[in-house]
Amino acid sequence: METTGLQFIAGKRRSGSSGKQYTVTNPATGEVIATDTLAAPDDIDEAVAAARAAFGTWSRTTPAERSEAMLRLADQLDARAEEFAQAESRIGGKPIKLTRGFDIPGSVDNVRFFAGAARNLEGRAAAEYSGEHTSAIRREPIGVIGSIAPWNYPLQMAAWKILPAVAAGNTIVLKPAELTPLTSVMFAEAAQAAGIPDGVINIVTGSGREAGQALINHPDIAMVSFTGSTDVGRQIAAQAAAAVKRVHLELGGKAPFVVFDDADLEAAARGAVAGSLINAGQDCTAATRAYVQRPLYKAFVERVAMLMDGVRLGPVDDPATDMGSLISFKQRDRVAAMVDAARAAGATVVRGGRIPDGPLGHAAYYEPTLITDAAQHSAIVQQEIFGPVLVVLPFDTDDEALRLANDTPYGLAASAWTRNVFRAQRASREIQAGCVWVNDHIPIISEMPHGGYKASGFGKDMSAYSFEEYTNVKHVMSEITGASHKGWHDVVFTSHRTGTVHQPSAPAASAH
Ligand code: NAD
Predict the structure, then answer these.
(1) Where do the structural domains in the chain lie, given as residue ranges?
(2) 284 has catalytic annotation
(3) Of the CATH numbers 3.40.605.10, 3.40.50.720, 3.90.550.10, 1.10.630.10, which one belongs to the domain with range 7-251+462-472?
(4) CA 229 / ligand 1 centre spacing (Å)
(5) Which of 52, 91, 203, 447 lies 20 to 30 Å from 354 when distance is taken between CA atoms?
(6) What is the pLDDT of residues 85-140, one digit of tens each?
(7) Topology of the domain covering 255-447
(8) Which of 178, 210, 284, 435 is catalytic?
(9) Beta strands in 383-446 (DSSP E)
């Protein structure tokens, strides 16, 4: 059944007013899921005004009130988990077992985490640092947050943006990717059903160039939180700098996967297949570059190839399907072009490297792909592919492995595979990435931060660290001696020459 009305503004679902029609389709089947009209700058103005109006009340709710509303939201999501899993699978071309087992439970857990975290938001200091003043730290919400999300994990990305912002007392206007807005709108509706007031969470579905730009540049947006590609992030950072606006950027990745010669080969090979093919490789932390120490290299490539042969591509509503389609034909063709260029430059395509035959080839599927013999400086090793492609390269020494792992512009995630505690510790310290897994690759948890180093951005999603992005820190300094003559005045004027003034008695406090 087709859906319409993919804006959620001031608690109401409706169409955008740009007059530009668009469709949301299932990239695994071509089925049309929604036909609607994109948001125009007028819709952004309305959404920001609604968020601004809601801020006064929401920012003054108690942490317990916000927490309870979020717990009710978690219950709403639990009750509708299968509906969300189906919708997320259809808009993203994702296997239903991934959305049932990862996207939806992960998002619900995030809601429950932030319901708890809302009640633990506190300033750090309360002491007399000067001896004459008590200092306290207030953590205050910033205002209306403008968030922009990508298409790869639509519900999780919406949750990561919305939850810390509203838990801290902000209100939000979120622009999901125009390919995948449906579950973000469903999430906002569930929040409304849970009692989160209208205007606290607004969803605007529009293009990056029009709606995204209008949102970023809106004068009432106090902070921009962006997850997406490094190219767009760079542009947004420049705009935020010009407006002196707070910005949080979660950008691209090119995660290294370093296998030392003492590693458990079977664990590493399985980890590489799962870590590179999850969500058809459209994962910013996906394993993309495996560096394998020479003694294990040949056996690792053979085992990964064998495991890739067992990965089942198929209809996304079949629970036996392991890997679905890519998000669009455009994305599939981009991946295919990068693999073809690597092949032309002399790399060996050990598995895949092609669009599957038969009906899947008429949708946006691409085969699990294993590449060897690529040069470190080549595009397939340096640039984000965002598809089901793993490149494997050999190394000889630990120094070389760590140098290669750090040798891209990105720094989002990485993994080190070893049974040697010293190697594990050294890799954890020296790999420049926001997350280093040891003997695993991909798991995330609500309690721990997610965010990048280098061109992967700055700031953190998830965990209590995300409150650093979504709160202002205010120092309140209260004089506690009551003395009118303070020692430091003497550096400004000589007070003994001016005498003192007689203060008339203050009027009695009135009940009015
Ligand atoms: P994208 O940068 O093309 O788009 C992301 C969002 O930005 C979309 O909503 C899009 O409409 C909007 N946008 C595009 N151009 C814009 C502009 N000029 N002004 C304002 N908004 C604009 O990225 P994508 O293709 O949707 O997603 C894939 C990218 O996201 C990959 O690079 C991936 O690594 C990254 N990503 C990063 C993380 C992370 O946590 N670091 C998580 C998921 C995805």
Answers:
(1) 7-251+462-472, 255-447
(2) yes
(3) 3.40.605.10
(4) 4
(5) 91
(6) 999 999 999 999 999 999 999 999 999 999 999 999 988 778 999 999 999 999 99
(7) Aldehyde Dehydrogenase; Chain A, domain 2 (3.40.309)
(8) 284
(9) 389-395, 410-411, 413-417, 435-438
